[in-house]
Design goal:
Length: 516
């Protein structure tokens, strides 16, 4: 079977190994045959609701078997999956569904409180979910039909739909987290996702013996890549929806015999500062992957020490790249600390000057990517698309450099650069220094308006358990490690950082917090 469509991964594995385990969730499990049957039923139910090729269908659910069946079912029906944050506000969902003119919505259990307002969306023709949860909730003037998903699936058969789909068909619209502005609908084709999935499987060497422990939400492109890669390889996923209790999550990781674990920088900061990760043996764990933003070298060093003998992959990517652009081999981690490695198979990643010429070794320029995994564009937003896509590739907006061995480093985000006096300062450098302080758990640096300098440097930190960072001590720490113009003008200690749907620190709200 040629893999040209995302759901073909599931279909091929269900054909070859129907009794093999695909997922484990809250003490329950499901095989490839089980999930394939469920996905086919979802697809038939959608076709029964007159969903046609290219229609947009929203997906609002926590990680679960139901999410997986709905995701692949939407694709099997020829529709475009629009994943939504199950923890988000319904007004935000309303805006995103309106932007893409969604025809329908699939809701998972516990999503009714977030979907009640969505039924008012005029172009939404149906909502498939748990009907009992909606009793007394949905507005009487609801514009769409509300149907019980399980009943619809039971009424449908599990025949695989035979539709004339092509690899250039759109598979998903993934809205960016909006940490630097309005969310944009990244439009990914089947070909984009398939080639990126195959490349990740190749460099991680994922096989059907691998079992990944998933704490990242599937609506997030990194989380979705964990699902697609392990289905592509015939492996399995272990769903953990209670990472707020890291000790319990680690117990589950150990008990499930998971061979892989993936997280963003905050995931590993929590494990290193608020659990006994360093004391665990975790005999089944083979590899760990990190993406979703730069991890400070100090955090990397601590992770290496906490997981001796495990393969640690530092990765770099973007939603616009279907997930992944580069990775650092575990063998190079200590000697190339702070690097994002080299481009993944099939991708070109260059450092370009403003005039689009190639930057010299260690010269800072913009990271520009090209390859078959790069998005088609932003949904119904040609102006934003033209701002990042041209004949040179996808302009990431990240500033980087390449060393003499060809390894890449992210220096900072162009839109986050602080212009203080005559200096342009990358927050990342200051954040890494702050994270070396023994009392600091997480750190974020932003520029705030300053009458004299234009912008001054404001730093925010949270504390490691049992510690209370002293502001004067932190400022003195910075003065010993940074030039004077990079030392923060002030430091604020926060109990917790606000985060976006991907678990990243939301820097947009920090200047306002500083003004309080």
């Amino acid at each position: 079977m040629k893999i040209d469509l995302v759901h073909r991964f599931l279909e091929q594995r269900a054909q070859e190994q129907p009794e093999s385990l695909l997922l484990m969730e809250a003490g329950q499990s499901a095989t490839y045959g089980d999930v394939e049957s469920g996905a086919n039923r979802v697809a038939q139910a959608l076709l029964g609701e007159r969903v046609r090729r290219g229609d947009r269908v929203g997906l609002l659910s926590h990680n679960s078997r139901g999410y997986i069946e709905a995701y692949y079912g939407i694709l099997k029906a020829g529709a475009i999956a629009v994943p939504l944050n199950a923890g988000g506000a319904w007004r935000d969902h309303l805006d995103l569904l309106d932007r893409c003119q969604a025809k329908g919505l699939i809701c998972g259990p516990r999503s009714a409180p977030r979907s009640e307002g969505l039924a008012r969306l005029r172009q939404l023709q149906f909502i498939l979910g748990t009907a009992a949860e909606w009793e007394g909730r949905l507005a009487k003037d609801a514009a769409c039909r509300t149907l019980d998903l399980r009943q619809a699936m039971l009424a449908a058969d599990d025949r695989r739909p035979d539709l004339p789909l092509a690899e250039r068909d759109r598979a998903s619209i993934v809205y960016t987290s909006g940490t630097t502005g309005e969310p944009k609908g990244v439009t990914l084709t089947h070909a984009n996702i398939v080639v990126n999935t195959q490349s990740i499987v190749q460099y991680l060497q994922v096989t059907r013996r691998d079992r990944v422990f998933v704490v990242l939400p599937f609506h997030y492109v990194y989380g979705k890549s964990l699902l697609n890669t392990h289905v592509a390889a015939g492996g399995s996923v272990v769903i953990e929806n209670h990472f707020l209790f890291p000790q319990r999550a680690l117990d589950h990781l150990d008990e499930s015999a998971a061979t892989g674990f993936s997280g963003v920088p905050s995931t590993f900061a929590i494990l290193l500062n608020r659990s006994n990760l360093a004391d665990r043996d975790l005999p089944h764990l083979r590899y760990v992957t990190q993406a979703g933003g730069a991890m400070a070298p100090e955090l990397q060093r601590r992770l290496i020490d906490a997981l001796p003998g495990k393969q640690i992959f530092i990765m770099y990517g973007a939603t616009e790249a279907s997930a992944r652009l580069s990775y650092l081999e575990p063998a190079d981690l200590r000697r190339k600390m702070g690097s994002i490695g080299k481009a993944i198979p099939g991708v070109t990643l260059r450092v370009l000057r403003d005039d689009h010429t190639e930057a010299d070794v260690n010269e800072v320029g913009e990271l520009v990517a090209a390859g078959p995994n790069i998005m088609e564009g932003y949904w119904n937003d040609p102006e934003s698309t033209q701002a990042v896509l041209d004949e040179h590739g996808y302009h990431t907006g990240d500033l980087g450099r390449r060393d003499e061995d060809g390894f890449l480093y992210v220096v900072g985000r162009s839109r986050e650069m602080i212009k203080s006096g005559a200096h342009r300062i990358a927050p990342k450098e200051i954040e890494e220094v702050l994270l070396e302080h023994p009392h600091v758990h997480e750190a974020a640096v932003v520029g705030i308006p300053d009458e004299i300098l234009g912008e001054s440097i404001a730093a925010f930190v949270s504390a490691r358990p049992g510690r209370r960072p002293d502001v004067r001590d932190i400022l003195n720490w910075c003065r010993t490690k940074l030039p004077p113009h990079k030392v923060p003008g002030d430091v604020r200690v926060l109990d917790e950082f606000q985060r976006n749907a991907a678990g990243k620190i939301n820097k947009l709200v920090l200047p306002a917090a500083f003004a309080k």
